[in-house]
Specification:
By secondary structure, this protein is of the alpha+beta class. The protein has 2 domains: 4-74, Arc Repressor Mutant, subunit A (Orthogonal Bundle); 111-247, Endonuclease Chain A (Endonuclease, Chain A, 2-Layer Sandwich), CATH 3.30.870.10. The protein contains 10 helices and 9 strands. The strands form 2 sheets. A 7-stranded mixed sheet has the order 3-9-8-7-4-5-6, with helices on both faces. Strand 1 and strand 2 form a beta hairpin. Helix 2 packs across helix 3. The termini are far apart.
Length: 256
Amino acid sequence: MRTELLEKIGLTKSEVKVYLALLELGSSSTGPIVDKSGASSSKIYEILEKLIQKGLVSYIIKGKVKYFQAASPHKILSYLHEQENAFKDTVQEIQEILPALIEKQKVMSKSEANIYLGFKGIRTAYEKIYEKLKKGEEYFYLGTPSYQPEAMHVYWKRDHVRSVKAGIKRKLLFNRDTDPKILKNRNSYKWCDARYMPLGIKTPAGFLIYKDTVVVILQSPVAIAVEIVNQDIEDSFKSYFDEFWRRSKKFKTTKE
């Protein structure tokens, strides 16, 4: 029997053992329950009380002795539905206070730095743009490297579709040895302007710049993202980007 499923709905290992023992014993005092389940005799009343609260066990008193009995297994589904409904209510309540929590975080976290490892970490750091940027706002990417793992190429293409739906504008500066096909692809998306870095500058790492945040992203030979949340630092990197952008040229599909 896959008893681990009972643990998934919120029962502890001890509660599962006691409940299963009661299914076999029927109405029973604590002694046989302890023997059958292997539960600690010092904890048995506590375990039974928790099962009673969950509606999975009941009891009667005979001659001053409590006899416990397992509820029908069908009650497990009822308990699960109750948990599901409670979870939905909790989700709704969290959604209601979420704006206040976010605002509190903004107030308390004027400056911070975070490190994300692996490609999933890079995506986590990058996708914070959707939390901070509104429709019509933009982000800037300085020094996109020519080489990226194929999985990341696929990810960026999908993300540009997401950015279009979100109404987020993008200005991207790629290293000059990047395949023109990649820039052609990026420029095919609405609100995306992809160009080559000026003056032949090449950077192994790229810099994502937006709002009050700069994310240094290195995809090879190791995948890592360093996120810095600080308005002054963002302003500094944005000044560098603006100067490079001013010197760059609009990408053309023909050879430059």
